[in-house]
Amino acid sequence: MRAEDESLAAALPFFRGLDENSVKRLLENAYLQRFPAHVDLIRQGEHPDFLHVVADGQVEVFSRHGDRETTVSVLGEGSSFILAAVFLDRPYLKSARSIGPVRLLLIPAAEVRAVFRTDPAFAANCAAELARCYRSMVKEVSNLKLRSSLERLANWLLQQTRAGGRDSGFNIPFDKKTLAAKLGIAPEVLSRNFAALAAHGVTISGRSVKVTDLALLEEFARPNAAIDDPDY
After folding, report:
1. Nearest to 221 by CA among 143, 150, 139
2. d(CA 38, CA 148)
3. Which residues, other chains included, contact 201 with Cβ-Cβ below 8 Å and sequence gap of 6+?
4. CB of 96 within 8 A of CB of 39?
5. pLDDT of residue 58
6. What is the pTM of this model?
7. Residues 92 and 159 in one domain
8. What's the pLDDT tens digit per position in 28-86?
9. How many domains does the chain have?
10. Residue 134 domain-assigned (yes or no)
11. Contact status, residue 231 vs residue 162, Cβ threshold 8 Å
């Protein structure tokens, strides 16, 4: 790995507070690799040889059963996948693919397990990552079971509107098929839901969304921090 790539990799949150020797060991046989859009990165049922960490870009984590497929999550910079499989040395329960061009750090799974046993800071980082994944999954289950598809879309729009200091509009960061799968909605239902939200202060054109009345949308969505706030 080039020196500039090592510096970029070592700056990722996963390496925060680590002993210099631990960083060196994790990166010694690691790869910082670019992938184009729509490439399968790992497959459900495969054995994990590497821990993948997103350096930049977005990755869709999804699951398949028969001829059906659903998006489990969308990961961005600093996120890893799939740490639980790496720790347990068990097959992946999910697959992952790049949404757009993405750059990934691939760390050998055996080194992840070895450094976990010797570096308390790395063990703490891994435990925090697993805890975040668990809490995120609980929120997803609550969102799916406690809300209608229209309410799920309304709350997702609220989150996106508030993210990054946006005032009233934003572009959906991936295609609508991925959004529908992420929210557990059939694509045709997603289109109807967008139309229905016009009565609650939302207009859409292609992937461009404009919230014309944030208070009206919030009144309908009734956001709940225990489900919607990523920092809760």
Report:
1. 150
2. 30
3. 211, 212, 213, 214, 215, 216, 217
4. no
5. 95
6. 0.86
7. no
8. 999 999 999 999 999 999 999 999 999 999 999 999 999 888 899 999 999 999 999 99
9. 2
10. no
11. no
